[in-house]
Amino acid sequence: MKWQVAREEKLIAFLQGRLKEHSGKFLRKVLDANSCRINGQVERFGSRRLRRGDQVELAPKWEAVPSNHWTFATLYEDESLRIVNKPAGWVCDPQYAAKTWGSDWVLVHRLDKETTGTLLLCKPRVREALFKLFEERQVKKEYLALVDGVPQRDSGEIRSLLAKKGAFQGQTIWGSSPRGLLAITRWKKIAAHKDSALLQIDIETGRTHQIRVHMAEMGHPILVDRQYAREFRCPVFCPRILLHASRLHFSFQDKIVDVTAPLFPDMQQILRDV
Q: Which domains does the chain carry?
């Protein structure tokens, strides 16, 4: 669905004028879901002032506003550990974890809100031992990311010091800085498409937004990561960034735990479409 703007007005008023059957509240949820573009750039603010000649476009499935009802598939469980396939939109917060699984299970690590995939929980009695595994880099973490554009090389390693650089829409922006903490990211190209590529990514360190920052600084930001990129070569529409924690591998209490999380349907569909 696409229109050309004939006169200056706010984006939300423009949409309400053309989609009269939908409320302003619903249309704001559409914007929050990254389902609107102006002149090819995703726009999430209804207050954006449109100019004559601007092109406003909605995603093909713009009415499918993401639900706040999440389902967690259990990928692994024993007397001390549980690994689930985290859906997009769920915030990794101890309070939410307690509401979801009860006080007998606690979060061991975190994934960004829109990142899907392997999330490790444990019984409180083993929490400190698992924290130590992560601190000593004894946990192998593997990700899949659909990035904008196609890297020229087939693989690579990125090392930099990451620190807070600023803020965007109320969220902290991280980036390489001489005063930061060491972050190590290794990537390998799995598939190349016209305007995007699927990468397998291994991180030796677990810094905040590490993969997102390193991919953006490499010139291939993760689709649709507006926090670290404003323009994308690939025209894909998606309510979330296309990053998936695909695998966790570690040894604990004389057990080898090696768990792979399947992609969620939205990312599977986009990989078929690009």
A: 2-58 (3.10.290.10), 73-273 (3.30.2350.10)
